[in-house]
């Protein structure tokens, strides 16, 4: 998390849930509420508050350049119900208004694509170190080897070329808002 808070750039691909930096409070609460085994409401609220605090990085004086690619299925999964999802779609659209944040959807019919082996986050630090953060279930690790990071960077570039454009993605979200 410390790297995320100081990052110059933040490139994220997610295949299971809306990225934490884009989540609404209610979506986040629902995600933690579905956790199994359960974590308890007090712990869940602490985690929700911590995640909301992380989002302040997008409001700092010089925010990081952020790009998000997410799977279409994430948007169709009713986490928290239709109203929670409607608010979530709108928040994604609102977050992508500033120039420093962009968003793309990987359509379900685009298979195979460059990241079928899972989610990742690429970060660039103020010292221009490039890192990759990988997470699965309850395990996570940071990749700092330049050769490995380069491979993930190439993978992310290909992924972006395979996803809907930012404009197409915004229209897709607006369509979902109209469907509800």
Any overview of this molecule?
The longest helix is centred in the C-terminal third of the chain and has 17 residues, at 146-162. 43% of the residues lie in helices and 20% in strands. A six-stranded mixed β-sheet has the order 3-2-1-4-5-6. Helix 2 (25-33) packs antiparallel against helix 3 (41-54) and helix 5 (82-95) packs antiparallel against helix 7 (166-179). It has helices at 2-6, 25-33, 41-54, 72-76, 82-95, 146-162, 166-179; strands at 9-14, 65-71, 101-106, 120-124, 130-136, 139-143. The mean pLDDT is 93. By secondary structure, the chain is an alpha/beta fold. The protein contains seven helices and six strands; from the N terminus they run H-E-H-H-E-H-H-E-E-E-E-H-H. A hairpin with a 5-residue loop joins strand 4 (120-124) and strand 5 (130-136). It is globular and about 40 Å long.
What keyword list fits this structure?
180 residues; alpha/beta; six-stranded mixed β-sheet
């Amino acid at each position: 998390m410390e790297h995320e808070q100081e990052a110059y750039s933040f490139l994220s691909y997610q295949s299971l849930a809306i990225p934490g930096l884009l989540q609404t409070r209610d979506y986040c609460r629902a995600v933690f509420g579905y956790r199994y085994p359960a974590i308890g409401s007090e712990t869940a609220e602490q985690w929700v508050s911590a995640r909301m605090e992380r989002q302040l990085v997008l409001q700092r004086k010089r925010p990081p350049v952020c790009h998000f690619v997410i799977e279409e299925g994430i948007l169709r999964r009713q986490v928290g119900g239709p109203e929670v999802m409607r608010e979530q779609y709108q928040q994604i659209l609102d977050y992508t208004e500033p120039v420093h944040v962009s968003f793309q959807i990987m359509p379900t019919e685009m298979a195979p694509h460059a990241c079928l082996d899972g989610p990742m986050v690429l970060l660039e630090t103020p010292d221009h170190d490039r890192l990759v953060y990988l997470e699965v279930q309850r395990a996570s690790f940071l990749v700092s080897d330049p050769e490995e990071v380069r491979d993930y960077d190439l993978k992310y570039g290909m992924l972006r070329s395979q996803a809907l454009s930012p404009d197409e993605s915004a229209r897709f979200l607006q369509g979902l808002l109209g469907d509800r």
